[in-house]
Amino acid sequence: MTVPGRRSSTFIRLLRSGFTDPSTAARLLDADALAAVRADPVLLDALGATADPDLALLGLVRLAEAQTPEELPRLLDTLVSAKPLRDRLLGVLGASEALADHLARHPRDWQALVTYEAADLHPGLAEFEQGLADADDPVTLRVAYRRCLLSIAARDVCGTTDVAQAAAELADLATATLRAALRIASAAAPQDARQCRLAVIAMGKCGGNELNYVSDVDVIFVGEAAPGTDEGKGIQAATRLASHLMRICSETTVEGTIWPVDANLRPEGRNGPLVRTLASHLAYYQRWAKTWEFQALLKARAVAGDEELGAEYIAAISPLVWQAAERENFVADVQKMRRRVVDNIPAAQIDRELKLGPGGLRDVEFAVQLLQLVHGRSDATLHSGSTLDALHALAAGGYVGRADAAQLNDAYRFLRSMEHRIQLYRLRRTHLVPEDEADLRRLGRSMGLRTEPVAELNKAWRRHASAVRRLHEKLFYRPLLDAVAQLTPGETRLSPRAAGQRLEALGYADPVSALRHLEALASGVSRKAAIQRTLLPVMLGWFADSADPDAGLLNFRKVSDALGKTPWYLRLLRDEGAAAENLARVLSAGRLAPDLLMRAPEAVALLGDPGGLEPRAHEALEQEVLAAVGRAESGEAAVTAARGVRRRELFRTTAADIISSYGTEENPAEEDPGALVDRVGDAVSELTSATIAGALRAAVREQWGETLPTRFAVIGVGRFGGHELGYGSDADVLFVHEPREGVDEQEAAKAAQSVISEMRRLLQLPTADPPLLIDADLRPEGRSGPLVRTLSSYAAYYRRWSLTWESQALLRAEPVAGDEELGRRFIELVDPLRYPVEGLGEDAVREIRRLKARMEAERLPRGADPTLHTKLGRGGLSDVEWTVQLMQMRHAWAEPGLRTTRTRRALAAAHAAGLIPTEEAQVLDEAWVLATRVRNAVMLVRGRAGDTFPTEVRELAAVGRYLGYPEGRVGEMLDDYRRTTRRARAVVDDLFYGA
Predict the structure, then answer these.
(1) Taking the CB of residue 741, how many other CB atoms lie within 10 A of it?
(2) Alpha-carbon dihedral of residues 202, 204, 207, 210, nearest 10 degrees?
(3) Sign, Cα dihedral of 471, 474, 480, 486
(4) CA–CA separation, 69 vs 65, rounded Å?
(5) In sequence order, what E strands does 345-493 have?
(6) Considering Cα of 887, then 892, then 898, then 901, what sign does the dihedral take?
(7) In the beta sheet, which residues pair with residue 304?
(8) How far apart are CA 513 and CA 520, in angstroms?
């Protein structure tokens, strides 16, 4: 009979002991099987010390109820009298529902936890082989495997072994299991066993002696025919044995499964033969293997089968592994594979991914393996398959900073412990942190977090993941600085050779110069050097992510030399999160942007201003330029000031373009290439307009004061009038004037001619700023005609002599500077020419087609590839623009939307008017945008204009990076360009030539 008040005190005590369901716990304690021990206070305290007291009590009752009447007293007596057994057994029952199920099915297996001798504390391969020795079929093998697993889990949850030791024991148990499975398979097919030699090579975590509780066991099989056996028959026999071994471990029986044996890391993956000879393996690795395959072989270890053959395999492939870092794009390939892993994680899971997510286990493993492969060529101490052993060796050799290695070691151990506890619960393969509160509570308590287990667990997990994210990039670069900074005496550092090897592996073509730059930036004890040592590890990573890391580092040194003494420069890079990455992208993307920055390094401040890269409005630009001109004392000083504004704004535009094209950690790359093209075209065109306005004001003021004797306007044509200027474009213009009242026409013409000459002279003066070339060759009569005409002269010429191509050229005419009223009247004059009523006649259409065909035949430079020339090549700018312009001249009189100077807007208007189908409009737009971006990229990369792809390898790669192609995908870029323009040319043939 229950004493009044008894239940409430038990209820409270159970709550205090950590039970979450005291009512159920009290009922379980009243079970008959526990009658002999339920009042023992030691039992309740021991249950309360487990990860999940409720789960531990339930498992204990199930185990006790499964005992025979003769064996139950022994279990209970041992439980209350032997603390080691009590801690082990209850620890397992409170952490693993799956092992509790095993004990309920095999109630005598708890006795595997009774012994507590030295060999039992840290068993090795021999002990596990002995534990599996009696297994002679898949079912008994599973039972014996779980009995061994029980002892590993018990030592793990009680803290007798740490996470690294537990992982090594799991790998040893897997090795013993593979050997037992091969023994069983050989016994089932003795004829096959006699005909071949078969070696099992463990890969992945099993090969590295760092296995999880539940994981695929990755293997590679090597086979040879036995002496006197035909090779083909021998390999067939080995393949049958290997297949049977895999089934023995992987198939589901009444005792469940052990784990899948995965042989997909073999040459050619699942498409390749399961078993190969050693010679076949070597032939594949020497000719066909990819970088990731050598990274995988880093952990290869012979574990079962023919020991001599296994040793021969390891000896043969080992030199190939340590030569992998010499392969082209080695680091890029490894990092690309890591990014691909992250990209394939479902978005809903990425925040719970313990292994593959950012700041997860794989980040540590990839970083360590990469450094092993780079430096293991010359340092055999790094030849370890274990992540933690390799990390220790890297730190001891100075390849990783000791503090960084210690942080990564702690984080890796914590994350692996989480992974172990998550998998141990149900013995399922998972790397996802649970979402359920009860699961998180059990997980936190199993990690020793008892006060607020869920909150403490999440906090510790996020802290360690953040440390991994922060360190895994810097890991490569920080020791490079220690190698040159010469700070703490006695600290182990990278040797110059090792530092050079690392830089070379990371893509630096001239590691000697790179080390010299690092030394200049980071040496010494000044505050400046200290900040640089903080910045450079990250900057070097961003440089290495570009097509030309050497140029990025050199340019960074130049900017730092120029601005290093200013108090705001390093503070900006250190404190403004985006500024440093933005600068790294700009400095390593080509020549143009760094050249602009070097001429005025203070413009780097734009990179830290949230709105600093936004294009400025035309009115604000022109106002600033005219104000600067107004303050200058001479025409040359005035235009120098205007060109200085232009230089700064060009840098703003190039920087914004590069950063939007590359993307940053915070902001992904712009997905719409058309938006990038429009932004550049608008910004450069507006800037050119403001600069010309400033030069006009300076030229007038120098000779005539505030008023020129004739009204004067500059009309933009070509790309300038279309707001489509690129970085390397000249400014195509027409000049028009009209004498003021009372001024002689000859005097007015002379003044207009004089002001044009002065403008051109001033804009082309040799200074540090890029010149602005004005091209007036599209004027009436071309170079043979007068440079400037009156409005009435233009009217007379167009009325009597105008040719069709001149009307076509006027399609993109737009006033850009000077007298606004005169510019407006000029546009009124030419509108009937460019938008003729009723459209073009057939003769005019034929003339335009004839001119285009002649231009294609005569103007393409000799030797140029017509499939890659952006302006005059197949499906390039000229093809698209002439097609659009022909539609404008034929239909703009009836379709107001076509009355625009901009190609893309006109094309969109033509589509809206039903003049071109949707698909064909998209094809033309895509080709025009792509060709324009290539031209912009060439100018950004080379610092000079070009209409075709560069031939130099690094320049071509840099164009590819700007266009969004990862490293090593240049061929794909060229193929895509040819495919895009080929499709565009087919549309041009249809719409323009009427084919």
Answers:
(1) 4
(2) -140
(3) negative
(4) 9
(5) none
(6) positive
(7) 200
(8) 11
Residue that is written with structure tokens 């021969």 in the block: 312
- Residues contacting 826, CB < 8 A, separation 6+: 713, 715, 734, 736, 791, 794, 813, 815
Treating both helix axes as pointing N-terminal to C-terminal, what angle do 453-485 and 437-446 enclose, rounded to 10 degrees?
60
- Which 8-state DSSP code applies to residue 606? G
Instruction: Give per-residue pLDDT as tens, 80-95.
Output: 888 888 999 999 999 9
The two tokens of residue 517 are: 């730059």
Q: Say which residues have a Cβ less than 8 Å from residue 608's Cβ, sequence separation at least 6.
A: 572, 573, 576, 578, 579, 582
**Model confidence pLDDT, tens digit, residues 952-984:** 999 999 999 999 998 878 999 999 999 999 999
As given in the structure block, the two tokens for residue 856 are: 């294609």
Say how many CA atoms lie within 13 Å of 364 toward its Cβ.
Answer: 30
Amino acid at position 758, single letter: E
Helix (H) or strand (E) holding 734: strand 731-739
Distance CA 399, CA 376 (A): 11
AA identity, residue 441: R
Place of tokens 């250190």: 574
Q: Is 328 in contact with 297 (CB distance < 8 Å)? A: no
- Mind listing the pLDDT tens digit for each residue in 372-428? 988 888 889 999 999 999 999 998 888 888 888 999 999 999 999 999 999 999 999
Q: Render the burial of 548-569: b for 16+ CB within 10 Å, e for the rest.
A: bbbbbbbbbbbbbebbbeeeeb
Axis crossing angle, helix 97-105 with helix 53-66, rounded to the nearest 10: 10
Q: Which two tokens stand for residue 358?
A: 């950012």
Distance of alpha carbon 977 from alpha carbon 875, whole angstroms: 10
Distance CA 516, CA 765 (A): 37
Tokens read off for 417: 């412990």
Mapped onto helix, strand or coil, the DSSP state of residue 325 is: helix
Helix (H, G, I), strand (E, B) or coil at 613: coil
Contacts of 882 (CB under 8 A, 6+ apart): 848, 852, 988, 992
Distances (CA, A) of 295 to 111, 222, 265, 289: 42, 19, 11, 11
